[in-house]
Amino acid sequence: MQKSGKPERNIEELLQLRDAALQLGISFPTIKQWIYKKKIRSARTAGGHHRIPQSEVDRLLFRVRGKTEKERQQKIRRVSGRNQLIGRIDSVQISGLMAEVRISIGGQQITSIITARSAREMQLKRGQTAAALIKATEVMILRV
Q: Taking the domain 14-64, which CATH number applies?
């Protein structure tokens, strides 16, 4: 509850078409076609412009990174770990020698603590696509 006594509303982030297309790795005309064919849900602004909910981008993120299993496997680096989850970077906080990287995957959050140097070398930034590689109790980040 907010201080006013009214329940809090969960307002979802809406993306401009170019930003959503960039995250999905597709062209602007393709995302427009997806809207018209109802492959992706959009909301309209008061001015009639389409906006894409972040949840729709997250839903489609893994599917468009490679249409076939072979194409998907080519996008993910070859490592022995099989627990690789693709998502979107929500935040990168660098402090001293360490960095906290939070990835949103299907509405869930995964947080990894990596070296600040690794985060800088991979040029990790909010909104980028990344894979979380889960091995035992450690989570490593791969820039995709």
A: 1.10.1660.10
Q: Report the percentage of the chain scoring pLDDT > 90.
A: 39
In CATH, 83-143 is 1.20.272.10:
no
CA dist., res. 66 & res. 56, Å (int): 17
Alpha-carbon span 113 to 119, nearest angstrom: 10
pTM: 0.48
Give 27's pLDDT tier (boundaries 50, 70, 90): confident
- Which 8-state DSSP code applies to residue 59? H
According to DSSP H, which parts of 3-126 are helical?
A: 17-24, 28-36, 54-64, 69-75, 116-121
What count of other Cβ atoms lies within 10 Å of the Cβ of residue 10? 5
What's the rounded Cα separation, in Å, for the pair 122 and 141? 9
